[in-house]
Specification:
alpha/beta, 2,3-Dihydroxybiphenyl 1,2-Dioxygenase, domain 1, four-stranded mixed sheet, 49% strand, globular
């Protein structure tokens, strides 16, 4: 067996809204889009959006390393997401912010 790709899947409640958020905020390229499943390439990695009609939003374990954390937080806010935890140094030279997408899923931005 050979692994040919690894990707991350995010459950979303409204596909068009979620697709716009990830494509606009993180400069993603839409590879495939449908009402139930969308694939977006962000920094060389595929992030899949899967339509889910049940279950509350949650922490999804997705991390984006960015060159300007303050700007990235602003981009999330402008795209309709929200800052959950302001940028905080969690270890020497490691600054992170917890943010939420428009679906309410939370993930991490890390200053690179």
């Amino acid at each position: 067996m050979t692994v040919v790709e690894t990707f991350f899947s995010v459950d979303v409640l409204e596909m068009e809204r979620a697709t716009a958020f990830y494509a606009q905020t993180f400069g993603g390229t839409i590879m495939f889009a449908s009402p139930q499943w969308t694939s977006i390439r962000i920094a060389g990695v595929r992030v899949a959006l899967a339509l889910a009609t049940n279950g509350p939003p949650r922490r999804i374990g997705l991390h984006f390393a960015v060159d300007d954390l303050s700007a990235a937080c602003g981009d999330v806010d402008r795209a309709g997401g929200r800052i959950v935890t302001a940028p905080t140094e969690v270890a020497p030279s490691v600054v992170i912010a917890e943010v939420a997408d428009r679906e309410g899923n939370t993930f991490t931005l890390t200053q690179r």
